[in-house]
Design goal:
alpha+beta, 3-methyladenine DNA Glycosylase, Chain A, 14% helix, Putative 3-methyladenine DNA glycosylase, EC 3.2.2.-, DNA binding, MPG_sf
């Protein structure tokens, strides 16, 4: 479900198609910063992501295809949803050519649309904390395993391109223990909505 007309700010960019994701994960990841992610009309501006490439151990696809990660091995432009630590859902956007099995993890959003619904789902009022982490963002947007394998350019999911390039900062990913720390985390410099501040 798209936002109602009166809810859409004039600066909301064009809807991204699956072809947007058919490129290097290292090109897609920083370009998603500032884009708007909506699920059934609820969501906000992407302020933090991490890139994962199949050639490094931190990627779920590193050891090959399994029932859990099979969406990563399919065509680009689809959602890969998995359970983290048996507790939280996390959503990734599959990138690169079919078989590459690379993806971008959505780590944090700045809430924009449907804030009241996010507050109900999260059981808190503080807008800064609604989507400040991959599990929090999925809970706030109502993302679950039911969204695994869904196209990123068809309802209930919509992603709108940014209209201005924010001040983007890069740094090492968070909680990586299986691989060399790589500067594949991207975010809006100084955003209050990040899961964790970037080092100065």
């Amino acid at each position: 479900m798209a936002p109602k007309p009166h809810q859409i700010p004039q600066k909301l960019g064009k809807a991204l198609k699956r072809s947007f994701f058919a490129r290097s994960v290292h090109d897609v990841a920083p370009e998603l910063i500032g884009a708007t992610l909506l699920v059934d009309g609820v969501g906000g501006e992407i302020v933090e992501v991490e890139a994962y490439h199949h050639t490094e151990p931190a990627a779920h696809s590193f050891n090959g295809q399994t029932p859990r990660n099979q969406i990563m091995f399919g065509p680009p432009g689809f959602a890969y949803v998995y359970r983290s630590y048996g507790i939280h859902w996390c959503v990734n956007f599959v990138c690169e050519a079919e078989g590459s099995a690379s993806a971008v993890l959505i780590r944090a959003l700045q809430p924009t649309f449907g804030i009241g619904e996010m507050q109900l789902r999260r059981g808190l009022q503080d807008e800064r904390m609604l989507c400040s982490g991959p599990g929090k963002a999925c809970q706030a947007l109502g993302i679950s395993i039911a969204h695994n394998g869904l196209a990123l350019d068809k309802p209930p999911i919509a992603i709108h391109a940014r209209t201005e390039t924010p001040n983007i900062v890069a740094g090492i990913r968070i909680g990586i223990t299986k691989a060399v720390e790589l500067p594949w985390r991207y975010g809006v410099r100084g955003s209050r909505y990040l899961s964790k501040p970037f080092p100065k």
